[in-house]
Every structure is written in structure tokens, then in C-alpha cells.
């Protein structure tokens, strides 16, 4: 599924803790990834402390909103450091290799979307939970999910 590399890279940035580097990249992110403009506009208008507190509330205080593929308990394989190395990438060690932003960045850099497609059910579940929670982060998952093939029937 080539052509979504910029979107995946931008989505990975959106799903990381919103630090000063993230804020500095918002104008570029907004222009480079139009499906993420709504989220980028929200992030730009939200005071930094408030945005950081919201990130913690959404992703760190709510286990149902985990950004780790292994938390979704699917039959699909989760990435390992070997997978990243096989694509010529290295993990930083700051997060486990199944951290969704890392998986998105890997897909962006390699064009290989199989791991995202394998976890389509979990991504849909996370998207639904974020939507129900009422967070703008749901729009990031919306943008990613629309690029993936539908989940296989019976999964």
C-alpha cells in the first residue's frame, strides 16, 4: 500500500507524547498530512500543559487505550527488534517494539504495512474506544485505518 508513508510518519508523531519538538513540527505536519489537520489544529490551539495532561489521561491512565499492540490480545504477531533490524532500522530502547508509533514509523520508512493490516481489528477497537472517550486522538486512528484493507471476515 505505497503512498501513505507521510501519513504514517505524521500519525506516529501525533501519537507520541506532545513535547516541544512535536509542537515545533505542527505546521509541517499539518501541511504534509491533510487527513491529520483537524488533530494538528487542535494540538496547536491547546496549551502545552493541557495537551500533555490530556495525552497522559488518554494513553497512560486508561489501559483500554493502550498504544501497545500486545495489549490488544490478538492472534496477529507483534513486532520484535529483529523485524526492525530486517528492515535496516533500529529501535531506541525507550519503548517496546510493539509501540504503535514505532510500528507506524516502520511502515512509513519501509512501505511494509503488513503489521498494521494484521492488527486492523485492534486498531479499529482502539479507534472506537478513543471516539467513545471523546478525544481528538481518535481522528489520528481514523486517518490510519482508512488506509488499511478491511479486517478479514470472521476475525
UniProtKB/TrEMBL annotation:
Keyword set, alphabetical order: Nitrate assimilation
InterPro entries: DMSO/NO3_reduct_chaperone (IPR020945), NO3_reductase_chaperone_NarJ (IPR003765), TorD-like_sf (IPR036411)
Keyword Cytoplasm: no
A Pfam cross-reference name: Nitrate_red_del
Protein name in the entry: Nitrate reductase molybdenum cofactor assembly chaperone
Source species: Streptomyces levis
Amino acid at each position: 500500500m505505497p503512498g501513505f508513508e507521510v501519513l504514517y510518519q505524521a500519525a506516529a508523531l501525533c501519537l507520541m507524547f506532545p513535547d516541544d519538538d512535536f509542537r515545533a513540527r505542527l505546521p509541517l505536519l499539518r501541511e504534509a498530512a491533510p487527513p491529520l489537520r483537524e488533530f494538528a489544529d487542535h494540538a496547536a490551539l491547546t496549551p502545552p500543559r493541557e495537551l500533555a495532561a490530556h495525552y497522559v489521561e488518554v494513553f497512560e491512565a486508561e489501559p483500554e487505550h493502550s498504544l501497545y499492540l500486545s495489549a490488544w490480545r490478538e492472534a496477529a504477531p507483534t513486532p520484535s527488534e529483529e523485524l526492525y533490524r530486517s528492515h535496516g532500522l533500529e529501535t531506541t530502547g525507550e519503548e517496546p517494539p510493539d509501540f504503535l508509533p514505532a510500528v507506524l514509523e516502520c511502515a512509513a520508512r519501509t512501505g511494509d504495512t503488513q503489521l498494521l493490516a494484521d492488527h486492523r481489528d485492534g486498531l479499529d477497537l482502539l479507534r472506537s474506544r478513543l471516539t467513545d472517550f471523546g478525544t481528538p486522538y481518535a481522528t489520528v486512528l481514523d486517518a490510519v485505518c482508512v488506509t488499511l484493507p478491511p479486517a478479514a471476515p470472521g476475525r
